[in-house]
């Protein structure tokens, strides 16, 4: 008997709440939809005891908890993947900086005899840590008259010959294709 009285009290409270909600709604185009919605809520409230015969409330709550747990687990997995990607991206940048220093040292060792220096060097790596591109900017150490091949072919042609030879040395040393090496002449340092 107490269950029936509790049920009737809940239905009456729901009915009063929906009537008050209907009165607060201004007249407008959406009024008929809101009336439909409140009637639907009232019908579901009245039919609720019959729905409990078809399904166990505890089983439904367990399914909801399980789904929430699964969703949280997949979200944590995505977060771990993002952290791993960021960590790998950080390591790749560190390797790029170290490779750029190594390329700079190799290039300066070759260019020093011709009076050049490396102004800037950078290396781009792929996700698999393979060299995607080597970029160098080369300049003269000091303004001076050049000797050897520069006298015969002119300063610009001599610079280009030295840069082409440097590119070949880098191709041999790092095993990178020639089209992945970009060397530019930046003038005097």
TrEMBL record:
Q: Does the keyword Transmembrane apply?
A: yes
**Which parts of the chain span the membrane according to its record?**
33-55
Pfam families for this protein: Spore_III_AF
What's the domain of life for this entry? Bacteria
Alphabetically sorted, this entry's keywords are: Membrane, Transmembrane, Transmembrane helix
State the protein's name.
Stage III sporulation protein AF
Record organism: Roseburia intestinalis
